[in-house]
Amino acid sequence: MFRRLSLLAKHLSKPLPNYSHLSAANPKSSPIPSSPMASATPAQKGLIHTAACLVIGDEVLGGKTVDTNSAYFAKFCFSLGINLKRIEVIADDEDEIVEAVRRMSKNYDFVVTSGGIGPTHDDITYQSIAKAFGLPLVLHDESFQRMRRLSKPHKSQANFDWDTPSAALTAKLRMVQLPLEESRPIKDEQVIYVQDDLWVPVCVVNGNIHILPGVPRLFQNILDGLKPHILPRLTDPNGKGISRVLISTPLPESGIAEYLTKLAAKVESKGIKVGSYPRWGKQHNTVTLVGRDLEYIMSLVPEVEKAVEGHRVKVEGEDEQEETDPNSPRILSS
């Protein structure tokens, strides 16, 4: 079966842009030429302290699509106590993808990419990441078999046949040609399936680059499914995450800036961060206390409430009142 599939992939891959030099029939085919700067050894699987998200897509930069995946990833990291250090949005450009994933893989423990792994010519994430780390693109038979079993051809493709060469099959095969290092274990090391009823693989490159689709529903489901794989590598394996306490204040930021500066210096050694967020056109601004030591944070609340003449709230803006008088004063951030 694999030989037949490989021969079919070899035949179909020839017309694809940027794929003519790859042979799915020969899994030992030469890697895409790579810069000497590419990492030769995978990142070590140590504890996860930091994370980064790379959103790939011309449609995001062009305003056609609103990126919600990075916001979901930020909440995911916060809930698990992972320090999200960077979010970038870049074009479907090979050079930019290569540079970004090399840099992020080197600098952060857990990296997620979003987008660019579909069936069309501009979906170049797999091939670009392969180039970044000097890896071959390999037709992954298990992913193909899962796709074949769990996905259905579009209703417009009434004559589609999984065993007959066609443009539609060529396009589908693009989504299971993965950047793999064949000297390392593939199962659960380089390819992860998070749901039994979902064929889409999470390809893990260089030990810490996790390649996810850009479709928000898929991105969110797959990211949530990765949680069991992430928990054992967290500083807090219980995944309790970071706590955030909100304090609403009627004072402008300039009125509390001096106090917050002193407070931030006082609590820095405890790993607590103090934030101040203006709410333009509203009656209250927000002060935040963020950190892992909830007990210590709560001990600070009475002091902060008094200093900013405010009180703790569960949700930002919950104490706002609708203003019916258009001439009533509104605070600004200054």
SSE blueprint and pairings:
Elements lengths: L1 H12 L36 E7 L1 H4 L7 H12 L2 E8 L3 H14 L2 E5 L10 H8 L4 E3 L1 H10 L16 H8 L2 E3 L11 E2 L9 E4 L3 E4 L3 H10 L1 H4 L12 E7 L3 H15 L5 E5 L7 E7 L2 H15 L2 E3 L21
Parallel strand pairs: 1-2, 1-3, 3-8
Antiparallel strand pairs: 4-5, 6-7, 7-8, 9-11, 9-12, 10-11
CATH topology of the largest domain: Molybdenum Cofactor Biosythetic Enzyme, Chain A
Taken from the alpha-carbon principal axes, the silhouette is elongated
Strand order across the largest sheet: 2-1-3-8-7-6
- In the CATH scheme, the class of the largest domain would be Alpha Beta
Assembly annotation: single chain
Region (Disordered): 311-334
Pfam family, one: MoCF_biosynth
GO molecular function: FAD diphosphatase activity
Protein name: Molybdopterin binding protein
Describe this structure in words.
The chain is α/β, with parallel strands linked by helices and 334 residues long. It folds into two domains: 2-233, Molybdenum Cofactor Biosythetic Enzyme, Chain A, CATH 3.40.980; 243-313, Alpha-Beta Plaits (2-Layer Sandwich). The chain has eleven helices and twelve strands. It has helices at residues 2-13, 58-61, 69-80, 94-107, 125-132, 141-150, 167-174, 216-225, 227-230, 253-267, 294-308, and strands at residues 50-56, 83-90, 110-114, 137-139, 177-179, 191-192, 202-205, 209-212, 243-249, 273-277, 285-291, 311-313. Strand 10 (273-277) and strand 11 form a beta hairpin. The longest helix is centred in the C-terminal third of the chain and has 15 residues, at 253-267. Residues 52-233 form the MoaB/Mog domain. Residues 311-334 are annotated as: Disordered. GO terms for molecular function: FAD diphosphatase activity.
